[in-house]
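ugh ok fine here u go
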Amino acid sequence: MMNAIKKIGVAVAFSPRIEAILAEAARMKKMWSAELILIHVGTHGEKETTRLNQLLIQTGLNNSGDVRIFWEEGKPSQRILAICKKENVDLLIAGALKKENLLQYYLGTIARKIIRKADCSVLLLVNPSPTPQPFKNIVVEADDRPHVEQSLHAACQIALKDQSSWLHIVRELKMYGLTMTAAEQCSEQEYEDMRHKLVQSEIETVEKILQEIPHEGVKINIKLVSGKSGFELTQFTQRKQADLLIVGAPERRFSFFDRVFTHDQEYIFADLPCNLLIIHPRKEVAHG
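structure:
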């Protein structure tokens, strides 16, 4: 769960957004009182060392005794994930493009490869700022996927820490179309009763999970959607102008059907509506 964050990894690339990425990482470090591990894969010389040291000063990370730097060579996604595994990183922060173009979609960006193979939670920042702001409008997916409880727990924790304005919990109405089609021969009142029971059942499922999670003071809105939930989730997030979307980690191996036809969460990864936190709790390990 998010309260177990002790180590935060940061994928560092010398791009125009590097200062903003480090500033956001500094905010996350302070939020969780965590150790920071910076990982750069690529050219490493005096120029890069000097530049990174300057950035650490600019972002206030230079005097922190719990910031370490790893200079790596090789394939970026492989080396970043290897260091995260070796160092028992709980949360990996990386920059991401808001929208992938056709070439990037088929070749796979570094961020996409990290999403698929990371053993820890991943925070993708689509619009990092040198002056980071709290997450004020959070959307979290609450479907029956792995880590749904952890996703809701993380959402509530962040909403409390950032004093967010709203936490929107989105859940799919399972079998809604089939159930309503089967009810077409019912009277109008029976139809509405069936629909109400279906909606109420899903709301109660979410509320039951929330009973076990501290969230007093958080303004919560439970939103039920039907249809392709990944698409609906993205659309809802955009309408609410959310600044953070939280989802559970995708399955490691998609079926043949999912490889041929767009997997549900691929709607999200291909066109990020905002910053994206992917929850993938690591197995209990001893932090060194």
